[in-house]
Design brief:
18% strand; alpha/beta
């Protein structure tokens, strides 16, 4: 297939701005697509935290004019940078009123009241940008509700645009829970006409739902694991839009995220106390002692150490962990936790720390070096998520020989193979029921295996460290996905004429 010109729009991208796994995908996937020969460009906001000097940004001449419907024209500057380690351009939209703030989406756990306008602006600016930079994409790739208006706009007000009109669009859903639900008057900001405010359009329970519009209008849809692609079509995981997803099931694909093994690799990791490999794991014992010292726990080799790095929110299963934690700590174990989230979790697990100072400690906040140290130093890594579209920490854990204990949902189910105590196959421990009892039983199973089945532990660790989830594989699947989108938009004959049959 002929190499493509791809414009990717998102609200996050590592290393510039990150709140979740979305940023990892947008920061890594374009690099691998570029290595395959594609011309990939990324557009995102220039938030306050995006330092122009640190990232060597240069301002493009001129001002981008963005029509915002009833609000009128809005204006922004555009700064250009590169994803580190690549030649992939990133275009940063500088609009002080919308993006010069402490948080990306919220402050003090409250979403900004104008998030609707902030991200409609991002979507519209992404469609105006090609004129400014002289770039006509073959395909536009939008991510989550923040840019889900792009497929809608391409099919409506931008249908005749010489740069983006009629183009194929891909919408990647990283989390169905967050949909961009706003008041109905947002239709006047979108400016696409009220005829699209219907049950088979953007209307959802009397509100404008940006994700719903994108689900209906995108040429193809994808999400970040095959398991989550199936789950999105059920009431439990579809968050009210499962019917829409089922309608588009023929155009829905699941592509498991990859891991950046340049960053997550115990053989070269600069953050850990000792390097180690599958062939020589002796350094892992030193990492365990270092982690115990860091968290103020007794330095014991003879106790299983559990780690958890997570947003402390219900989605990540902290509610069932809170219910099970006393029973877990009644076992001969240690537990370290890194994360922040719902305020009650800080107090609750802070009290657990005070009640079990020899067994449990918590670091509130996010700390990248410490997250590496937990992956390297722990024996087990806990992810009891209510739902997990993909998840990355379980993949990191496998590479570090830290056995994941996961609830079998979404990408966790896809990427972790359950331990078989007869054949010694598997790479971790899984449970299905979302309750504290199932979580405790599975932790107990892992603890029993650690104490009484050294042969099984050795095999499991070897199995885990042999697994790879590469971005090269994922990027090849995205290339195929783009081909499917172009075929659907153009028809097989026109696709073959423009891009060849490969």
């Amino acid at each position: 297939m002929k190499k493509l010109k791809i414009l990717m729009a998102a609200s996050e991208c590592v290393p510039f701005a990150k709140e979740g796994g979305l940023a990892d995908v947008v920061g890594v996937l374009p690099k691998h697509l570029a290595r395959m020969g594609h011309d990939v460009r990324v557009v995102m906001p220039r938030y306050r935290r995006v330092d122009r000097e640190r990232y060597g940004l240069r301002q493009l001449p001129g001002v981008l004019v963005v029509p915002m419907g009833i609000i009128g024209n809005q204006y922004c500057g555009v700064w250009e940078g590169r994803i580190p380690g690549s030649d992939v351009p990133v275009y940063f939209l500088e609009h002080e009123g919308y993006y010069d703030r402490d948080g990306l989406y919220e402050v003090n756990n409250e979403g900004y009241l104008d998030n609707d306008n902030r991200f409609v602006f991002l979507s519209k600016a992404a469609l105006e940008l090609p004129k400014m930079i002289g770039f006509e994409p073959d395909l536009l790739h939008a991510h989550d509700w923040h840019t889900a208006a792009i497929p809608v706009l391409v099919n409506t007000t931008y249908a005749a645009d010489p740069y983006v009109g009629g183009k194929a669009t891909v919408l990647s859903v990283h989390n169905m829970q967050h949909q961009g639900n706003f008041y109905e008057g947002l239709m006047d900001v979108l400016g696409i006409g009220w005829e699209h405010f219907t049950f088979l359009g953007l209307e959802n329970n009397g509100e404008t739902n940006l994700l719903k519009g994108g689900l209906y209008h995108a040429t193809v849809l994808n999400t970040v694991s095959e398991g989550y692609a199936r789950e999105m079509q059920t009431p439990e995981y579809g968050w009210g839009l499962d019917g829409v997803v089922r309608e588009r099931a023929a155009d829905l694909y699941g592509i498991l995220n990859g891991v950046d093994y340049d960053d997550w690799n115990p053989e070269v990791d600069p953050y850990i106390a000792a390097r180690y490999s599958a062939a020589d794991r002796s350094g892992k014992k030193l990492c365990k002692r270092d982690l115990q010292r860091t968290f103020g726990l007794p330095e014991r080799d003879d106790v299983p150490l559990f780690g958890m790095v997570s947003r402390l929110v219900k989605q990540k299963g902290v509610d069932i962990l809170a219910e099970a934690i006393h029973r877990i700590l009644a076992l001969d174990v240690q537990f370290v936790m890194l994360g922040a989230g719902e305020p009650w979790t800080h107090f609750y697990f802070g009290d657990i720390k005070n009640a079990y100072p020899e067994k449990f400690n918590l670091h509130v906040g996010y700390n990248n070096p410490l997250s590496h140290q937990i992956e390297a130093g722990a024996d087990f890594f806990l992810m009891p998520s209510a739902f997990e579209p993909c998840g990355l920490n379980q993949m990191y854990s496998l590479r570090y020989g830290t056995l994941p204990i996961v609830r079998a949902t979404g990408g966790l189910d896809d990427s972790v193979e359950n331990f078989d105590d007869k054949t010694l196959a598997g790479t971790g421990f899984k449970f299905w029921s979302r309750d504290a009892g199932a979580l405790f039983d599975t932790v107990g199973w892992a603890v029993h295996t650690w104490y009484h089945r050294k042969d099984a532990m050795e095999r499991l660790i070897a199995n885990a460290m042999a697994k790879r989830f590469t971005w090269e594989d994922a990027a090849a699947k995205y290339e195929d996905l783009y081909g499917q989108a172009l075929r659907k938009r153009l028809g097989e004959k026109e696709f073959a004429r423009r891009y060849g049959k490969g």
